[in-house]
Amino acid sequence: MEQNIAVGLDIGTTKIVAMIGRKNEYGKVEILGIGKSKSLGVHRGVVNNITQTIQSIQLAIQEAEAVASEKIDGVTVGIAGQHIRSLQHSDYITRNNADTVINEDDIDRLINQVHKLVMLPGEEIIHVLPQEYKIDGQAEIKEPIGMYGGRLEANFHVVVGQVTSIRNIARCVQSADIELEGITLEPLASANAVLSQEEKEAGVALIDIGGGTTDLAVFKDGIIRHTAVIPFGGNVITEDIKEGCSIIEKQAELLKVKFGSAWPGDNKDNEIVSIPGLRGREPKEITLKNLSKIIHARVKEIIEQVFIEITNYGHEEQKKILIGGIVLTGGGSQLKHLKQLVEYITGMDTRIGYPNEHLAGDSDDVITSPLYATAVGLVMDGLQRQERKREETVEEEVINEAQETAKVSELTTADTESETVEPEVKSTAPKKERRSFMENFTSRIKDFLDNAE
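Predicted structure:
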């Protein structure tokens, strides 16, 4: 696999998508190939059959490799599922010396303190996302490094999940002979793909309606404020159609995609669709009005659940108001009249989110579908990780060179050179340390699997 190419692997309830991409000369993401397979062995974002999931991953990877003519070695995987939950937490540290500036070690100390939070059995902290800092009572500080202060406080958005579920996904990837390069929370990946920075600043709620789960990510002032995973998605709508119309699942899915609408008033009573009967049985006639009523009832339930989460975030408060409204993405967002229903239930402006914000202009229409928002976001995440690694390699080389120069100058006469080099060594380190929280989590998962073998 080429060095500047990244692969996103979206392990969903209905489909598994492998997407290969790279950055073009304009800094946009160019998709080289995409592979898709039916997801067998995943239920509501959680693996319940390892063997079937491995086979589905291998199929998707092989298809993507064939399209892009590239060999896939490593992937960035998205995690979601009903076991994911989030909480707000405030913590503080008292610094020994308030006369020195706050550095990355202080931030690390503060973040490590968050890890001492008591979780439910089997749960582990996946993401610790600092919201804003407070230094000696001075609030709303976004970047505390370089400032003076004795007491450093922060509000954190903490994302928690069942570690066994994440290990199972990692095991499936490794068993498919692919290296796990990174793990990302799916709502965050989707948000990166479909939201603009302006929307994140103004305040926006991203609703990603997948097959088995509906993911929510709320942003305000450019910072993630709330995440939730609701254990319902497009599959429950299909299931209801199957039960309500007494037809098989394949037909129910087709009905939903081709004729389904979230707004019953749109269909006339005389609009009928005929479904072929099984094995010579009489065909079934279903009115589109009835079909819409079934879909409407379930979609309303999903949207109301999501709206409860948005209300829990506190969007009705003046300071927390979401000017950007709601952005819908994922396969479920393609349902006819869903936008109107969401606006009616929530009273918030709504648009459908297409992952073309960061894609190259000549991208295929298929790729820019909301269906692939998470996969595009995972590719972007993989590319960012590679960029960081390249930067860190360059930084290390600069530091090593500087240290060599310092040694040489010590051997000669003036050691003033070494003094000017010292601060440089310190100032380059923070970036590396502070952003590696998710990498640390990934490596812990990898170590566990290596030792378990």
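Summary: The longest strand covers residues 123-135.
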